[in-house]
Amino acid sequence: MLNIIYAGTPEVAVPPLDYLAQSEAVRVVGVLTREDAPVGRKRVLTPSPVARRAEELGLPVVKANHWSEEAAAAIAELNADAAAVVAYGALLPRTALDALPHGWANLHFSKLPAWRGAAPVQRALMAGESEIFSTTFLLEEGLDTGPTFEEESTTVTPDDTAGTVLMRLATSGGALLERTFERLEAGESGAAQTEDESVSYASKMSIVDGRLTWIEPAEQILNRYRGVTPEPGAWCELGENRFKIGGLSVADERLVASLTEGEGGSLAPGAVRLHAKKVLVGTGTEPLQLLRVQLAGKKMMDAPAWARGAGSDMAEATAARTPG
Fold it and tell me: Which DSSP string do the residues of 141-175 spell out, in sequence order?
């Protein structure tokens, strides 16, 4: 049985920690996570979700935003054989990678070597992929280039966003890591990744990625919405302010047909209309349905309630300033 350190930071990294903490194949001897960070409007210093869960489990916690002599010393005291890494959020230098005899096994949310980098699920959804993968691999100095061990996938449903897909893969990812450590203990070296046309990169997300351009086809807009939800979030413009989109879906075909027949024809890209108690927005192809929206300085609300309160003039002009 290997003694392992668990390195992770955000909420998505909690389910694999829970799984490994209960495993009979490995023993979690400590947790490495990022330092407490300011949260909320009052910027209160708050432990990471993984730090909080580790404390509940009674595990020693090492907090470090980068590898240092202090972090190395704290890790050494735990006498670990290997480490699991799930969204830790900091680069590990060669000295760190060499510190554990069986290395650092990373749970990465793509089918490597596709979507190496910081936001694999988000970028895969934005690209319209219908099957999203997770892979375990052994960290080395290259960007997600190490030998791979375990793999699984999940099918994207119409209601999925990056948040739901990530949590689903994270929930099942603990078992992948467990099997990876069993293979490492048995002396396996994993499968080398190919360096060919299958290599792609998933750059870090920014607020710009969330901007919806209504002149694009509906499918492309939906893919972007799924990829940027919940973070950094989807938005367009209302006047000079950012208009956040908290829910977006394919509109029912019968609803679209009745709109075309009875209320002024089809919607121009970016035009919004309250129709049959639903809020539709025009795109470069067929209309989409707005489910939840948030005006600047306001709380997220149901789109029909917003449209009724805003009045027809406001509703028709919502996305008139089509980004692009």
Answer: SSTT-SPEEEEEEEEPPTT--HHHHHHHHHHHHHH
| Closest listed residue to residue 15, CA positions, set 175, 135, 153 | 175
pLDDT digits (tens, 9 = 90+) for 5-60: 999 999 999 999 999 999 999 999 999 999 999 888 788 899 999 999 999 999 99
Structure-token pair, residue 138: 């052994």
Are 138 and 147 contacting, i.e. CB atoms less than 8 angstroms apart? yes
**What is the structure's pLDDT at 61?**
98
Q: Cβ(269)–Cβ(282) under 8 Å?
A: yes
Mean pLDDT of the chain: 92
For range 179-191, the mean pLDDT: 97
* Residue 253: strand, helix, or coil: helix
Amino acid letter, 169: L
Taking the CA of residue 96 as centre, how many other CA atoms within 13 Å lie in the half-sphere pointing to its CB? 25
Tokens of 19: 């799984």
Q: Which two tokens stand for residue 207?
A: 């607020």
